[in-house]
Amino acid sequence: MKPVLSTGGLSRESRNEAVYSARTILDLAGIALELRVSDEPGIALTINNNVLADARTLMDVFSISTLRRESDTGRFRSDGRFDERGITWDTLSAPVTAEARRIRTMIETIDPGYVWPESMESKHMRVIFTHDIDRVDFRDIFSLIKIPLQYICPRRTWLPWKRAMNPNMLFSVFKQVLELEFTYAIRSWCFFMGSGKGFGLRQARYNPEDRSVRRWLNSAGSMGTTIGLHGSYLAAETSRYGIEKKRLERVLSKNVSTHRNHYLRLNYTDYWHQLAHAGFRLDSTVGYADRIGFRAGIASLYRPFDPISGGQSAISVLPLVYMDRSYHLDDPDRIIAEIDAVFECVAQAKGQVAVLTHPESFALDDRWFDLYAAIIRTALDKGACVDGTLPSMRENEWIIH
Predict the structure, then answer these.
(1) Which domain holds residue 238?
(2) Are 393 and 316 in contact (CB under 8 A)?
């Protein structure tokens, strides 16, 4: 039994896209068989003359998983990021994963004796709880501006002067978050900046070598936390991923293999190529800032499409399904209901996803501790493993960062 992809009549570019779609849904279905690509007429993925996916399905898989569907909306913010107001699809479902599960069911019918790879059968739903460390205190210029501004604009809540000027306050809150996670046996991931302190709105607010940062790193390390790079806002334009990675590695005296970009910023052209060239193994940037759910329609680890190579990237993507927003505290029941729906999709797929919160959110409003605990319990109620480890793709081993 061997899957065959017919690509007769397709251009080289379209052929690469069809091959990527076929390989991706086969990987997600747990089918490790070699894919044979033929020039036979008609575009379809088949096994033993049974059609697993037709041309329309393959096109949809490519459009969703590569974020082309959002690019095709033409809706972008002034800074080039996708404008999420252009979303017309259901973000709480994972259509690419659903397609892979349908194909898996078909294979079980076509060949009941097919032996599934042990790595596929041993998977459990996994939720990686993560934190982006955008700042280590509130004594930067933008915080100083926000302190008086909150009295002029009541909606712009911020910290009172004395609390904001306390250099130990945010670190204390960070430790409380880690202690909360410890009670649930969580080993989280923390993404630190490696670009160096700047004074622009979207630049880093600390240097990774600062003594104040060292205690954050030590505290996270004592809890078994994974440390990743929080790539700077303009890292892609300036090709600085490798430089920032090495800078953080010098501070840690260890390799850094995971990444998430500042402001969840990525481009559709050379982002994956740059990360792979810099030596990263995994990225967790693919997620929404203002929506809960699956940006790429996938509920587990996957390989993104690299337009430069024309195939699967060497990078693995851990989908980000949630990022904290202040307005979530206004209707926590709705937020938990949506997260529950997302986690149900992940549970059915035995997938792996990430959840993101920022330490400053807890400092600004301590109600975040209750909402965060509710998110954790929702994951655990679905049977999620939260120990911070991930299965590697196509290999029966564990990536433990």
Answers:
(1) 126-399
(2) yes
Task: Give residue-wise pLDDT tens across range 155-198.
Answer: 778 898 899 999 999 999 999 999 999 999 999 999 999 998 88
Averaged pLDDT score across all residues of the chain:
93
Tell me which of 88, 116, 144 is where a domain ends: 116
Q: Which residues have C-beta within 8 Å of that of residue 294, sequence separation ≥ 6?
A: 91, 92, 93, 94, 97, 319, 321, 342, 345
Q: What is the pLDDT of residues 111-132, one digit of tens each?
A: 888 887 765 555 689 999 999 9
Count the domains in the chain.
2
Instruction: Please name the amino acid found at residue 318.
Output: L
When pLDDT is cut at 50, 70 and 90, the band that residue 146 belongs to is confident
Cα separation of 372 and 130, whole Å?
12
pLDDT of residue 399: 46
Residue 210, domain member (yes or no): yes
The token duo for 50 is 């049974």
Residues 6+ apart with CB under 8 A from 128: 188, 189, 284, 318, 352, 353, 354, 355, 386, 388, 390
How many helices (H) and strands (E) the chain has is answered by 15, 16
Evaluate whether residue 57 is within a structural domain. yes
Of 98, 116, 134, which residue sits at a domain end?
116
| Residue 91 near residue 295, CB atoms below 8 Å | yes
- Shared domain for 228 and 370, answered yes or no, is yes
Element (H, E) at 192: strand 189-192
